[in-house]
Each structure stands twice: as C-alpha cells, then as structure tokens.
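Readers outside the structure-tokenisation community will struggle with the description of the input data as it stands. What matters is that the chain and its backbone geometry are given together, residue for residue. For illustration, here is how one protein appears when written out as sequence plus structure tokens:

…
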Amino acid sequence: MIYKFENYKNGELKRNHLNLGQTRADGSSIQVNSRYIEKDGKPWIAIMGEYHYVRDCHKNWERELLKMKAGGINTVASYVFWIYHEEIEGEYDFTGDRNLREFVELCQKHGLSFVLRIGPWCHGEVRNGGFPDWLLKKDCKLRDNNHEYLSLVEAWYRKIYEQVQGLFFKDGGPIVGIQIENELTDNSEHLGKLKEIAKSIGFDAPIWTVTGWNSIYGAKFPLKEFLPVFGAYVDAPWLDHVNTLPPSRHFAFDTCRNDAAIGMDLIKDTDDDGWRLPYEDYPFATCELGSGLPASYIRRPFVSPMDAYGLSLVKLGCGNNLVGYYMYHGGTNKIGKLSTLHESKATGYPNDYAILNYDFQTCIGEYGQIRGQYKLLNLLHLFINDFGEILGPMEHVPAEQFVNADNDSDLRYCMRTDGDGGFVFINHHQRGLTLKDVRDAVIDTGKVTFPSMDFTGDMACILPFNISLGESVLNYATAKLLCQDGSNYYFAAVPGISPKYSIDGKEYEVDLKEDSYSFKAGDITIITLSWDRALELRKVDGKIYFDEWVEKINEYTLEDTGVTFELSYPEIFSLGNKASEVTYKKITAKSPEGLVEIKEKYDVAQLYADGKLVADSFYIGVPWQIPAALIYGREAYIVYSDYDDVNVYRDL
C-alpha cells in the first residue's frame, strides 16, 4: 500500500514579536521565533532533562550530570523548592544537598545549559507544592497579587538570586531559561507581576517560560513575555480511581500541544470567556514529557522504555522543538525538620505518594540506575544534537489519513520537511494496545518514494530523505539516522526492516550479519549498526564511544527474626482506608557493591537501617532496587504490608 501526505504549506515565520531573546557582549545569542529557538543565529533544539538537586546527594551530582550528558541531554532543569530552603521562616539553607549554586556551576563546568524553575509554587509532588507550612498560615491569599504575598515572594526570590548571581547567560553562565510558577492557568496578571519582580531583583535570561496547559484553550499569561511549555504523560497517577485509561492520543501524531490531563485536579475543564492561546506565535516546546511516572498509592502505572521513546518521537514529529523530560533523573525526598516533604492527601492532594521514593521509574533511577528509556531516547538525542539545525525549521506535515490512538491496524506516520527534504516519522507503538503488522508499506513523500517496508512488532523510527551528507545527497535511508563523526555517518538498522540507502541516485543494500557494517559513498562513509549496538552508542563533546552499562545485582537474604519495632511513619501502611498486616524481616547484603533487587510482592514497603527510614516503595509489579550500601554492615529491616490487587491500579 502507498502512504502519502497532505500538501506541504510553508507557514509564516514570525520574528521579534516576543519580549524574549538576548545577545551578550561576546556576540553569542539566543533568540525565539515562532517556530524554533536560535542559538548564535542557528536553529537549536534543547534536550532538557529535569534533575532535582535536593533529591540527591551533592556528592553524586557531577557523576549523574555526566550520565545525563552521555545520554544526549544538553540542558538541565530543576525546580527550586521553597520548603526545602526555608522550612522554618527566616532560616535559609543553601548548603550541602541544597547548594543550588554548586549544582548550576557543575552544569556550567560540563557544558550543560540550565533552566531555573523558581516557582514560588512548583508542585513536583512536594508538600504544599513547595510552599513552606508557615506560608500557608499567613493571613493572605497565596498565588495572588496582594501586597503581603508578593512581599514574601520577593524576599524568597532575592535569596534564590543570591545563589545564582553571575551565572546567567548574559554573564557567560549556563542559565538560559527561567520558569515562573507552575500550572497557574488563569491568572495572567499574577504571572506578569512575578516576572516583573524577578527582573527587578536581577534575574535575566533569554527565555522565560510558563506552563501552557489548561484544557484545549491554553493557560492565560502575558503573551509577549513568556514561551509556553507543555507536557504529555502516558498515564495519570494523580487520578483517584483504579480504571484502565483509554489509549492515549499521545501515541498518535496529534499536533494538539495541550494535555488537559496534567494537573486536572487543579484546573478548570472549560474557559468561560472563549480564551484561546495563539499557539502559532510560539515554537512547540515541552517541559514535561513523561519519560517515567511516580507511583501514587491508588495508581501505579508501569512506564516501558517504548512508552517513553514512542511518546517523545511522536511529539518530535509533531513539531516539538524543545524536548523537555520530567523526570529524566529520579531522586529521594528528604525528611524535613518539622514534617515529611512529600505530597499526600493529608496536605490536600488527591493521592498519596511514597515518603522518600521519587524514583519516577525514569531514564536514570533514584540511585543512578540506567534504564531502557535512557538508551532508547538517546537514539533520538544523538539525531537531534547533530541534525537539529536541519530539523528545527522544518514543519510538520500530517499523513493523508489521520490515525486515531485506538486504531490498531493502520500505519501511524507523519513527516517534517522544508518542502524538498526532511524526515518521515513512524510510530508502531501504542501503550495498552498491540498494533497489527503493516506490511508492504511504500511511503511517498511527494519528492521521494521509499522502497517497500514492513512495520512489525513494537517499534518506532525516523527515516531521512533528500538531505545533504557532506557533498552527497542522501535520497533516502530505511535505517534511522543517528549522528555524524566527520565524514562518517552512523545509522541504526530498524528491527524488521532491511537497511537500504540511495545516495546521489545510487542504491546500496546492507546485509547486516554482525553488529556493524560500513561502506563508502563518494566522500562519506555510512556505518550501519544493529539496533542493539546502537543502544550503546554515546557521543560526548564530539567523541563517539560505546557504553555497555551493566548494573551489578547483589545477593541478599531475608530472615524472620521475630523483631518488631516502632515505625517512624506507620500511617503509610493504612492508606486506602484499610488496616494492613505488617511483616518485619531482617535483610542482609553480601557486599556493599551494586544493587539489591527485592523480588517479593508487597503493597507498601519501608527499609530501616540502624533504626532510620532510608527507603520506601509502593509495589508497581517489578523488583524494587535499593543500593546494597544502604544495607551492608548495618542492622537493616524491610517492613512491608501484604500485596493488594483490588484497591490499587497496576499495569503489571
């Protein structure tokens, strides 16, 4: 069957219509037009990974940032949680694991841009959305333009500024973006006032962002002052029911930027005055592509590597030009001086979350584990980092026939093009739905016709056509373009598809019997890697290497000793309004290296070491991983309640 596209339309490109962008003294610049971000006059696609410095030990920061960079991340984002830094009014703490400046300087050291999310309300599954308890006791309306609240916010912003002064883009620093507030959907005046306060203090960046979601209409904000950023998750752990959700439209090439499901407990379903955000004025930008999800007590979805990869690939095909993941790196909540710092029903939210665990089952886990998402998403990041300058200006062109999320038979595809060359995006993955094989598919872009291909199994890919590689023109490739190293161009053989190339009109077919095969075509060399080998490819600071990461899984023993003790946080075992039988078992690791995988089923579990709660988990259907170092040489106990398959939702 032949698959075609709608007609390409070269849309209007608007410049200088937003109060964004900056050129510094050395001539380096970041500007924002209506389609993409420009860095030093060239299209630039930021790949932004959220990593909360306060949810990790500062001794780990540099190592973990290097992992992020090796995974293709070029920009780091983090909330600055007010409650973590001023839990007690007037007592500020920016030391140790709360040392914001040290974290930003490490990003700068390793060539990573930084987006500072200063709130003051952040959410992030933190107690009170990040507001200190003392703030909630003030006799003033919060998240509002009243004098008392704004005075408190200004004082807080000044403390943040003291930490990051001199680290802004204009100073040669890494801070290229500042996000104001979060999920504030219908108070434009307040968002504008917060930016005004921040700028008066000295905050300065080429890009200022706000979260843009609010049903289909988009959030209300001062339109010239911010770049709206969006999100997409594959499930909704904030919901308070155990029903399976319908197939998500995020796996269809739907260009709607908004995800009304995010924070749906906080926003209205409709807009009363007909407001519509002028999406066409802004590049499609994301800050919360769900490369994972947290487990709430009621909903515990499992996010597969293909869920994360398919989601990001689809958004890229739909025109996403700022690829932002939440979370890219998991973490561990801290215990405050006055309370726990996690979100719960007790603090007014629809669901309960674990006290410590913020692993987010994402690309890099709570303890630095490399997950399947990390490897798959890097296949996109390699491509974006090396070819984003070409991709950024290209426009989305939909398939001739749109395919809905619940359609299990028809091919899902689109392209991004400049009218001559570009990239075809294929997604043959739908969370919760097995897609039927599509065989003998011939894709006709209007400029190039690809040879017949079969799209089978669980897969997604990007196929180039009519693009320049060196002095040659790649007419098409049925393999996924990865990256460039001088005159060498790396491709990944897509499972189920024979790698074929047409270069300057000459055809080449690769019989890939080993992990790689290379051939010369004119002035370039094409290197085709097997899919598995491509998953190990890394490119850092222009150098290519292969990283065969293997986690060490340690042995452990569980022993019934008859010991019980007073739990620090027993209320976690009575969630869901049910009394739970609690089991105590002593746990011992044979050495301090690597990870221990707790394979037993449970509902809620806590790990105590030398009498202190050091880890916890809601069971999602896969082994719970904890560092052996938390157990080795310590009096350690795992305490858990019985497995529950009635009152909670799980995929597994």
In short: The first helix runs from residue 61 to 70. The chain has nine helices and 40 strands. The chain has a mean pLDDT of 96.
